[in-house]
Amino acid sequence: DVGDINRNGRDEIFVTGRFDNSLSSFVLEAGPGKKRLKKIWNDVNLYFRIIHPFGTKHILLTQAPGSNGPFFGAISRVLFKKGRYTTHSKLKLPEVYGTKFILYGLTSADIDGDRKREILMLDKNYKLRVYSASGRVLVQSEEHYGRDPRSFDLGVSEEAGGIAQEGEPVSYRGRLQLIQQGENRYLLLPKNTSAGGSLIPGLMVDTHGSITFLKLTPEGLEKSSELKKQKGYVAAYGLVKARDNDPKMLHMATVEPQAGPGGKTLSIIYTYFWNE
What we know:
26 strands; five-stranded antiparallel beta sheet; four-stranded antiparallel beta sheet; single chain; 53% strand; mainly beta
């Protein structure tokens, strides 16, 4: 993820990196007037995610890995103070029985004007849920979003026969991005479809990926449009703020498994220009 968390006018690059069976994340930044990147925070045992709903300032969220599962504990907000990154506060999440929140596939913003931040997330079944600050479910979609074939297996112990003893892999969940375009507000979600069908979310065969646009209205979330489906699954996407009056650019990266031995894949980046 990319964002100016240390508020020096230059974006840092936050890399969630895995080494063997542990996290070794790090942060890169270019010095003033230089193109070469250097590490300014290294060997960090945390997952990184940056959110900036509706174009507000970047917020760095972190979460720790567990010893018996990929994720453990609270999602925390990190600030840069006195020359170092430090945990500032825990993200306020509703206490919902049976729901474990992870920082991927999650964002937070006041979407209904009540001055309280709602939580928007993709659940383990790849359905969109919106929770009020008190934990009440405001939205639960019928459609599946994300449906990413990748998973986190950090900290999961297995027997020699491959049977999990402690913990289970957690499916990756794509980015939820809240944006402002003119007078309208939208929620962007990745959507991967599969010949395996929606009844078996974990089975991803002959995937096609796109981005869905949900418009925020006084009545709730309303589907506005969807990008043309491309072969492969959506591995990542991002909306780039254009300069002056240029149209915004949406970059979408897809990964398509190739036929034949070796497990090769084809990665393609698509760029769309958005005028409204």
